[in-house]
Amino acid sequence: MATPRRVLSKGACILKQAHLEQRCTSPALARYKHTTSTGSIGQEDSTSRSNSSRSSCTQGCIEPSTTRTFPLLSASSRYTQLFRTPNNLQSIIFRRSIITNHNFNTNKIVSKLEKNGFERGQAEGIMRVMKALIGQHTSRIRKNMLTKGDLENESYLLKAALTELRTELQILRKNDAAALAIRTEIISREIDSLNQKLREDIANVKNDIAIDMNSRKSDVREEQKQLEIRIQSMSNHYMAQLGDMRTKMEAAKWETTRKGMGK
């Protein structure tokens, strides 16, 4: 189990890293700079320190038992001084704590630690270590995640983009529908024109076929008449020859009869 001194040392290291990464611009830091720039070093009695500690806890932070102030030093010299005396450690941790946001009820945590047997300073040190760790994790999470305002902004931009896209799609759909209607009308007119031309071509073909059929019928009739005339002519010719042959046969028959009777 870690001792309170080790916990405070770990908390001091964490706070040192967090202090170097972030800029402190709170009114408390400004008052601290103003106090240290004048070079004044004050120390209150134990009664005033405990009263100020209890009053500051109601505002969301725990004030340490020592409220000494130090001149402005470089980071290395300040933290060298920090690791020398526990009072300086508590003072620097307090100054760091009052310029950051609290992620939990610090007074409640300190009260619970005191009820479990920790001293006031130990409880405050553990609380500040917890707050520093939570602050680091919170800052890491904030770097990787969107805030509520950013999420609402992105949601608004997304909705605006979707609305614009929907509008563009509707306009494109209307334009496509109008172009398709115009194209359909043109195709319908072309189809009607082709149907009319096809009907005219069919009518012309029918007329040509009818004329050809009539002409062919006339030719067939003419040929048939010519054939009938030739048949009639040949029939007359053969009938004439047959009559001549019959006459000759009758003459030959009488001649033969006459010769037979004359003997």
Q: How would you portray this structure in words?
A:
- Helix 1 (4-21) packs parallel to helix 7 (120-144) and helix 5 crosses helix 7.
- 12% of the residues are buried.
- The protein has helices spanning 4-21, 27-37, 46-57, 75-82, 86-98, 106-115, 120-144, 148-262.
- The longest helix has 115 residues, at 148-262.
- The chain has 8 helices and no strands.
- It starts with a helix and ends with a helix.
- The chain is mostly helical and 263 residues long.
- 81% of the residues lie in helices and 0% in strands.
- It has a domain at 4-145.
- The radius of gyration is 64 Å and the shape is rod-shaped.
Q: Averaging pLDDT over every residue, what do you get? A: 71
Q: Count the helices. How many? A: 8
Order of helices and strands: HHHHHHHH
Measured on Cα atoms, how large is the radius of gyration?
A: 64 Å
Compose a concise summary of this entry.
The chain is an all-alpha fold and 263 residues long. It has helices spanning 4-21, 27-37, 46-57, 75-82, 86-98, 106-115, 120-144, 148-262.
Throw out a few tags for this protein.
disordered N terminus
Q: What's the topology here?
A:
Elements: H1 4-21, H2 27-37, H3 46-57, H4 75-82, H5 86-98, H6 106-115, H7 120-144, H8 148-262
